[in-house]
Amino acid sequence: MSTIDFEALAAAKLRTDPYDYLVVPGFIRPEALGAVNRDFPSLPDAGTYPVELLSFGPAFESFWKEIQAPAFRHAVEEKFGVDLIGHPLMATVRDCCQATDGAIHTDSKTKVITVLFYFEESWPHEGARLRILRSGTDLEDYADEVLPCGGTMLAFRRSERSFHGHKPHDGRRRIMQLHWVDPKRIEKNERKRRTLRWRLKKALRLG
């Protein structure tokens, strides 16, 4: 059984105000979300880690394989009218949010499309609700606010106007961050991955 709902993605409307983005509630199917959470990677700290460096259970593995498959890339390409061939895919996971997170930003210039997946089953907190912002200066001037839960998928086209951020929260908040990036980023990213691989091995030995 598929863990993701392609029909929900196909039905989602691409919004263009204040920049190109879409929200797909329940993209991770409700009947699969519990198992995917059960098999979510165990992380040593509140950091962000590349998926390929981690161990995880079968349900999360099934989800990850579906996200890497051409069908998902094709669906995103169709929605945004962009050709992602030749743009490497990068993915990281995190299971905690810190009170210092959420500052307004646009994402780096090397990113083409950003996708976020939210794994929490519910979100009663006021903080860490991602806001699609109209400017880089006012967190209250937002076009949309996305609850980080329920298997929701949020995707946007990175631009000089793709401002987003959220109010502070300190606690668990499981997410995957997915990016199609400029190929020139890969060499720099590989250096970071070698450092992260060393950090991860050290943390697991001490745990």
Element layout with pairings:
Blueprint: H1 6-11, E1 21-24, H2 30-38, E2 49-50, H3 58-68, H4 70-80, E3 89-97, E4 111-118, E5 130-133, E6 142-146, E7 153-157, E8 164-165, E9 171-181, H5 185-206
Antiparallel strand pairs: 1-7, 2-3, 3-9, 4-7, 4-9, 5-6, 5-8
Helix pairs in contact: 2-3
Name a few traits of the molecule.
single chain; six-stranded antiparallel beta sheet; alpha+beta; Jelly Rolls; 5 helices; 207 residues; 9 strands; three-stranded antiparallel beta sheet
How are the strands of the biggest sheet laid out side by side? 1-7-4-9-3-2
Which CATH class? Mainly Beta
The succession of helices and strands, N to C, reads HEHEHHEEEEEEEH
Strand content: 15-25%
CATH topology: Jelly Rolls
Characterize the main sheet.
6 strands, antiparallel
- Provide the domain count: 1
Distance between the termini: 35 Å
CATH architecture: Sandwich
Overall, the morphology is: globular
Helical content class: 25-40%
Explained architecture:
By secondary structure, this protein is of the alpha+beta class. It has a single domain (6-206), classed as Jelly Rolls (Sandwich). The protein has five helices and nine strands; from the N terminus they run αβαβααβββββββα. It has helices spanning 6-11, 30-38, 58-68, 70-80, 185-206, and strands at residues 21-24, 49-50, 89-97, 111-118, 130-133, 142-146, 153-157, 164-165, 171-181. The strands form two sheets. Strands 1-7-4-9-3-2 form a six-stranded antiparallel sheet, with helices on one face. A hairpin with an 8-residue loop joins β5 (130-133) and β6. α2 crosses α3 (58-68). The longest helix is centred in the C-terminal third of the chain and has 22 residues, at 185-206. The radius of gyration is 16 Å and the shape is globular. The model has no long low-confidence stretch (mean pLDDT 91).
